[in-house]
Amino acid sequence: MMRRPVLLTLVTAMFGFAPAVSAQSSVERGAGTPSDSARAWIVRVAGVSGAAVCPCGSASLPVPHDRELYIVGVGLRKVLHADRKDGYEVDYDLQFLPFIASHGTADENLGVRLCRGTHYCATPTSPSPWTTRATGFGILPIGFTTLVPVLPRLRFQLRGAAGAVRMSKPVPLLEGHKFNFLAEASTTFELRVTPSLALTGGMVFNHISNGGTAAINPGMNSRMLEFGFVRR
Fold first, then answer.
1. Which domains does the chain have, with CATH numbers?
2. Which of 15, 79, 102, 220 is deepest in the core (most CB within 10 A)?
3. Which pTM does this prediction carry?
């Protein structure tokens, strides 16, 4: 199976891409409230073993629920606004995705077409057509994070991001494209363990689709677990 090698790759990538940078301001070294010029490096890993994808509602083709999607993100976060009194913060979040892995999309033994309005019809020529594996990379140039203090060392994060990915094979179906658009929304917590290092964890909703640039645009939606760290 693919899961153990993939998880090992993700953990290795997370620590391999972690940059060693120093704190950006004396405010960060003290109370932990960043200044408006503060920057931070981000490394995160997100994964799911139950990604949902079309053909949606096809009675003739049961869609498995064990599809896998894994993403490694490495990025730079810059403070746009920080309230020193309340600890409220808004950041610009630029991320590169050096590693993306998708397992369980359709292979050449499955034909999908749009029929009956927006309903997808599928014709399999194999008992197990869900075998395609694809890897790729991407970038999220549009990203913003809002941070709200919960406890002295704990902050709640609400993040939204958008960008594009390039995969080795079309996803989530071969009638799609290798090039796809990606959008994410996440709710995570950030626990500061030192003045310059914080651990993060939570949930992220991920959407991948070709935006109507291919013959069909089924899309893939994933509710993923995410963990990582922030280094100032």
1. 3-231 (2.40.160.20)
2. 102
3. 0.75
